[in-house]
Amino acid sequence: MRLRYTSFINYALGMASAVLAIFFLVIVTRRLSVENYGTWVMIWRYLGYFLIPSVIFSTWVSRDISRGKNTSITGLMASIFFGFAMIPFYIFVMIFISANLQQPLVPLLISSIILFVNFLSYGLASVSAGHAPQITGYANFAYRVGSLIFGLIFVSTLTFGLTEAVIAALIGMVIMDIVSIIMNRSLLRKSAFQLHQIITWIKASWLPLFGSIAGLLVTFDVLVVSLVYQSQIPIAYYGVCISIASFANFASVVSSSLYPKILSNKNIKDLKEAIWLTSL
Prior knowledge:
The protein is an all-alpha fold and about 280 residues long. The protein is built from 14 helices and no strands. α1 packs antiparallel against α13, α3 runs parallel beside α5 and α5 (about 105-130) runs parallel beside α7 (about 160-185). The chain is globular, with a radius of gyration of 19 Å.
């Protein structure tokens, strides 16, 4: 794997994705009410809470593949299993939230499909991260293109609301997963399902789960604010600020390229090049 090539591809695709994300953000913020945009922000937080189990397999898949052990199919099957397992709990919580926070139920229920697709995305991203991190860049770009195109279609043909925004994001994610599967197909074909490997990952799950606790606690901020103020308006303004600030995170793509390279050849010299690329 070439560090400079992979970093450049991810950086360029990250910039292009950010431009498309800005256009989609403009559509969403102009078409949704402040309350509905606050709900839109919270939907992604709800998804984040239930996606925590994905680290059980995603952490180890990328490490295994980087070290020459092809566990791609096993990781993909694990993502499907965990995705299906979490959907009933997610739907139950969404019904409870809709009743108590007066948030529209239909988009919350549709987001349960996004939850499953997101688990699949995490599995595919971990496969890509282990041997060709630039695939993640292509997949994210496909997601932005798909969500923007269908967002524009809904704007031109329907009354664009929260439900349509969620559907547009869902379609974009399906396209993202399709691109990831196609670009990882050669590695997936050479892999076989290993149940004992999943059991091993579950036994060692305390390590990635423990590392996710801090990030999980930070994301409870919007939920606390919503419960205290009984309104999504503060969340909406907060969400816009976070979205704009996130567009500046291009330099982090270098670390995604460095991770599998160090695991594969254990050459610390790559770290110097990565620091140089990050500082550009």
